[in-house]
Amino acid sequence: MSLVVQLNSGSTINEGRLAKGGDKLTADYTEECAVCAINPADFEALGRPSRVRVAALDGSRSVAVRARDDGSLPPGQVFMPRAIWANVVVDPETFSTGSPLYKGAQVLIEPTEDEVLSAGEITKMIMRRG
Fold first, then answer.
1. DSSP label at residue 49
2. What percent of the chain has pLDDT over 90?
3. Domain with 11 in it: what CATH number?
4. Domain with 84 in it
5. pTM listed for this prediction
6. Cα(125)–Cα(109) distance, rounded to whole angstroms?
7. Tens of pLDDT along 90-104?
8. For the chain, how many structural domains are there in total?
């Protein structure tokens, strides 16, 4: 089972605290930011997975993150903290603004058994792709 949903990304209090504190390579940062919050009905439709793969619709970019249900989200929308995990999926086009669109991207989410990588591991993976 997979769903096409709208991805929104933004800062959270703990993401900001950890990032500004220089803790982007810690387990705490991974725990806070390598997550996709999903509407409870969508989460149920996916089979209540512990992890999901979030992917660009064209399949060019994807990342595995922990999944959790979040009743504050409407059906068809997901939220990821603005961190490297979301950055992997967000279209890098900035439209001359210097900042990609962190809101409203259509993505595919599906349950996965893939490992959730740390920020350092994702950075190495991206550098290998070159």
1. -
2. 58
3. 2.40.40.20
4. 3-129
5. 0.88
6. 20
7. 877 667 776 667 788
8. 1
